[in-house]
Amino acid sequence: MKKYFFIQILAVILFSGCAHEFNQVYKSQDYAYKYEFAKECFANGKYTQATTLLQELVTIQKGTDNAEESLYMLAMSQYCDGDYEGAAMTFRKYRQSYPKGIYAEMASYYIGESLYMSTPEPRLDQTQTVNAIAAFQEYMDIYPDAKLKDVAQKRLFELQDKLVRKELYSAQLYYNLGTYFGNCTSGGSNFEACIITAQNAMNDYPYTTLREDFALLIMKSKYELAQQSVESKKLDRYRDAEDECYGFINEYPESENKKLAEKYIESCKKFTKE
User: Fold this and answer.
1) Which one of 76, 87, 114, 157 is at 20 to 30 Å from 206 when CA atoms are compared?
2) Confidence label for 80 from pLDDT (cuts 50, 70 and 90)
3) What percent of the chain has pLDDT over 90?
4) Angle (CA) 204 206 208, round 5°
């Protein structure tokens, strides 16, 4: 117990000493020393301290030999400290200031990487995801033989998958709303909205691994739409639903939803064979 207490006291003393040293450096007008201290903080993983010092130094060091390195190090400090939006802005600033700089290629990559790290889960707004995709695409366009091309390509696929899942959640929501018309202010139906959303997603992302999920929603929505239709539209819509079921079976013969498609076909035939 005494040993544990001694370790705690020692840690407090060391932390206080480090904090005191940082405060002295922060208040110092010796910018060369301050810059070296910031580099030491960065090397030792003290990214918050490095960021604090470098935010002042990048302005003071404009036009000096250290200007380029300090701006890139600030961006990396922000990235490593988890300030991804700030990092993306600083990496962009570096690339604009030093398009042919030593770190230009890596800065271009880390713009995308920073945005990638700040993207939300698929159910939320995906503006940041679209921005990250654009950044990675620009990186690969500017540097076709880039060192991190494979990683950037992998990131692109992951980001595109988020966009696809966002569309899948939207289509599923329309299907779940079903016959609720409170949100159909233009006279359409939730099943029609589900079909359109799913079809657009399949057209926009033809190689998605979620293609069967979209196809299932389309098939189910067309069947439900036929069932909810007025008499004058039932026949055409049951025919459309029946065709969709056959198409689903042909494209996904091993699907666990094959029996559901067959069940729908038998139900549709009661109207299409009359």
Assistant:
1) 114
2) very high
3) 79
4) 105
Burial class (CB within 10 angstroms; exposed 0-12, middle 13-18, buried 19+) of 201:
buried
* DSSP code, position 187: S
Q: What is the pLDDT of residue 20?
A: 56
Contacts 24+ apart (CB under 8 A), 24-33: 25/53, 26/52, 26/53, 31/57, 31/60, 31/61
Long-range CB pairs of 253-260, under 8 A, 24+ apart, other chains included: 255/212, 255/216, 257/216, 260/220
3-state helix, strand, coil in the chain (%, to 5): 75, 0, 25
Q: Which of 172, 181, 256 is nearest to 221 (CA)?
A: 172
Tell me the three-class secondary structure of 226-256, residue by residue.
HHHCCHHHHHHHHHHHHHHHHHHHHHCCCCC
Query: What is the full DSSP assignment across 136-157?
Result: HHHHHHH-TT-TTHHHHHHHHH
Enumerate residues 6+ apart whose C-beta is below 8 A from 240.
Answer: 222, 226
Record the tokens describing residue 218, joined without a space: 């389309």
Q: How many CB atoms lie within 10 A of CB 125?
A: 9
Burial bucket for residue 185 (CB in 10 Å: 0-12, 13-18, 19+): exposed
Handedness of CA 105, 108, 112, 117 (dihedral sign): positive
Record the pTM: 0.81
Burial class (CB within 10 angstroms; exposed 0-12, middle 13-18, buried 19+) of 134: middle
| Cβ(215)–Cβ(251) below 8 Å | yes
Q: Are 172 and 217 in contact (CB under 8 A)?
A: yes
